[in-house]
């Protein structure tokens, strides 16, 4: 399940042997005195307890650096993608609208989730009040649902057009309706993470300390496991199965396609675009697989006794969050339109007249001369 660690860190750590005297709403045992001992807040640690490695200075510096880089790269890259699509008219295609939707979802994580995640991971205390306790985990779950649903829609749209040779693609109006539906459906799927959550203050009498805790509070002990399994299916396994099938069919169709030489450029562009979008899906799946697996193992109580549970969880969360900035890098690497547009932004150059279909900027006069020479004065049909 998405976003469990930052908002339930104190309540998901078990000691060995466990203390059954205290129990959370998730059916998990917990003792706040033990928590403070393991984090080194009390002088000497008794036998059976261990220090939290994330409290070491070098680990905290590494975590701060990693999260800061993800936030900065995500903000810069995704903002550039949206800027490109909004500013340049020829970039306003249905596929690019969906790509902008992906970028918007990633921006939501970079601005609204990761800073809070970093602070809570380092402090082991929720400093941001009850409202953000409910909304931050909801926002990240919402973002991931939007991302995977959008990737699925992109794959199915290309499958419909390429495999079945449907010349009529989605209109702008239809694409915006689909995007609105993805956000609505994602909000419904992410809602339990906002509803079944509790913000409370806990007293640690042994050291006279009062801390704020933001934790999941499910109505039944098995609810957390059921939700995790459901999300693993709905947000990972089923969408990736659909996407994989669609792109395999598209790849086979384009590979075996025989067309006149005048359409070779069109086929090559479709192959390049399909390869780029498929790689986006592969990176997304790779980044999130360790986190999904570890989250499920946590809910099944298979890894909570690991000595370095918190550090492992945090590392997997960082790997998953890398998906928020990899997409713009892939666009710039594999698509000339995006690459040239990014370069123009960094060079502060003027807006070009348009984008060449294969991705290179050309002035209107140069493009007209080229087209006249190649096509007898008739421009090629855009695909």
Overview of the molecule:
With 383 residues, the protein is mainly alpha-helical. The protein has a single domain (5-351), classed as Rhodopsin 7-helix transmembrane proteins (Rhopdopsin 7-helix transmembrane proteins, Up-down Bundle), CATH 1.20.1070. The chain is 65% helix and 5% strand. The two termini are 39 Å apart.
Compact description:
The chain is mainly α and 383 residues long. It has helices at residues 5-8, 32-38, 57-87, 94-112, 114-123, 129-163, 172-195, 223-255, 264-299, 309-321, 323-334, 336-347, 364-375, and strands at residues 197-204, 209-216, 354-355, 361-362.
Layout of helices and strands:
Elements: H1 5-8, H2 32-38, H3 57-87, H4 94-112, H5 114-123, H6 129-163, H7 172-195, E1 197-204, E2 209-216, H8 223-255, H9 264-299, H10 309-321, H11 323-334, H12 336-347, E3 354-355, E4 361-362, H13 364-375
Antiparallel strand pairs: 1-2, 3-4
Helix pairs in contact: 3-4, 3-5, 3-11, 4-6, 4-7, 4-11, 6-7, 6-8, 6-9, 8-9, 9-10, 9-11, 11-12
Region (Disordered): 355-383
Main location: membrane
InterPro entries: GPCR_Rhodpsn (IPR000276), GPCR_Rhodpsn_7TM (IPR017452), NPY2_rcpt (IPR001358), NPY_rcpt (IPR000611)
């Amino acid at each position: 399940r998405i976003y469990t660690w930052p908002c339930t860190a104190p309540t998901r750590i078990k000691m060995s042997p466990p203390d059954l005297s205290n129990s959370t709403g998730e059916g998990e045992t917990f003792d706040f005195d033990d928590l403070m001992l393991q984090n080194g807040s009390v002088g000497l640690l008794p036998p059976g307890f261990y220090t939290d490695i994330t409290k070491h200075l070098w680990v905290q510096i590494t975590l701060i650096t990693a999260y800061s880089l993800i936030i900065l790269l995500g903000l810069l890259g995704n903002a550039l993608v949206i800027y490109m699509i909004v500013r340049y008219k020829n970039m306003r295609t249905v596929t690019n609208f969906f790509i902008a939707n992906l970028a918007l979802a990633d921006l939501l994580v970079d601005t609204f989730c990761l800073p809070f995640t970093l602070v809570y991971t380092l402090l082991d205390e929720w400093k941001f009040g009850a409202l953000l306790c409910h909304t931050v985990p909801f926002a990240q779950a919402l973002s991931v649902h939007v991302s995977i649903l959008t990737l699925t829609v992109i794959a199915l749209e290309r499958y419909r057009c390429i495999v079945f040779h449907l010349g009529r693609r989605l209109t702008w109006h239809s694409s915006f309706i689909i995007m609105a539906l993805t956000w609505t459906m994602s909000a419904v799927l992410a809602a339990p993470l906002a509803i079944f959550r509790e913000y409370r203050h806990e007293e640690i009498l042994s050291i006279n300390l009062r801390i704020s805790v933001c934790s999941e509070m499910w109505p039944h002990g098995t609810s957390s496991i059921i939700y995790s399994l459901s999300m693993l299916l709905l947000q990972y396994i089923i969408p990736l199965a659909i996407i994989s099938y669609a792109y395999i069919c598209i790849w086979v169709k384009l590979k075996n396609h025989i067309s006149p030489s005048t359409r070779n450029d069109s086929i090559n562009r479709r192959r390049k675009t399909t390869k780029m979008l498929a790689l986006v899906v592969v990176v997304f799946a790779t980044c999130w697989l360790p986190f999904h697996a570890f989250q499920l193992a946590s809910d099944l109580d298979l890894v909570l006794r690991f000595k370095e549970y918190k550090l492992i969880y945090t590392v997997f969360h960082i790997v998953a969050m890398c998906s928020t900035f990899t997409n713009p890098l892939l666009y710039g690497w594999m698509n000339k339109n995006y690459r040239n547009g990014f370069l123009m932004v960094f060079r502060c150059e003027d807006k070009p007249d348009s984008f060449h279909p294969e991705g290179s900027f050309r002035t209107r006069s140069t493009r007209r001369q080229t087209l006249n020479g190649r096509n007898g004065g008739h421009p090629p049909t855009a695909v």
